[in-house]
Amino acid sequence: MQKADATSPNRFPNAPEICELAPPPPFGSLLAGARARGVADGFAWLGLAAILIDDRGEALHVNHAAVELMGEFVYLEAGRLRARDARTDYSLAAAVRAALVEGPPSRVEIGPGGDLVAHIAAMPADPDDPYQLLRAVVLLRRDRERSSARH
Questions:
Q1: Is residue 9 part of a domain?
Q2: 15 near 9, Cβ under 8 Å?
Q3: Is 4 part of any domain?
């Protein structure tokens, strides 16, 4: 095996210029995504239907259990959680906005008779942490008493 010669030509002569032009890897967004994913996995492990909300009020993650409850009365539009009924949609948006400023937890009944309930709460975070995107969580559940009373 030959030793590399100190005077051998650089195999990548433009490497310094390329490194200066290339943006750094998105480690921050990867770390932020990993944190949110860990929280999402925790809710899934607990069997809770969860929608994780970022600092802009948009869904970061919707777990499978939440997807199963959505559709008839609630849905995502342009990343935001929406309700098909205008009054409920307003209440839901107001609850998410309140959670984003770390207001008190909210409860919004969804659907005709409130069969579906959304619990919205802030996820307090250090405001100086650029890697913490998760700001609120929406937990969905069926109101079993109301659902069974109707059937």
A1: no
A2: no
A3: no
pLDDT > 90 fraction of the chain, expressed in percent and rounded: 47
Does residue 6 sit within a domain? no
Name residue 108's beta-bridge partners. Answer: 118
Q: Which tokens is 69 given?
A: 């409850």
* CATH number of the domain to which 116 belongs: 3.30.450.20
pLDDT at position 24 over 80: no
Q: How many CB atoms lie within 10 A of CB 135?
A: 21
The backbone region for 13, taken as left when phi is positive above 0, alpha when psi lies in -120 to 50, beta otherwise, is alpha
Count of domains forming the chain: 1
Strands 80-83 and 116-122: unpaired
Domain of residue 72 covers 15-150
Contact status, residue 73 vs residue 85, Cβ threshold 8 Å: yes
7 inside domain: no
Give the global pTM. 0.73
What is the reported pLDDT for 41? 87
Taking only the tens place, the pLDDT of each residue in 39-84 is 888 999 999 999 999 989 999 999 999 999 998 899 999 999 999 9
What contacts 59, CB < 8 A, 6 or more positions away?
A: 51, 52, 53, 76, 79, 80, 81
Instruction: Band the pLDDT of 100: cuts 50, 70, 90.
Output: very high
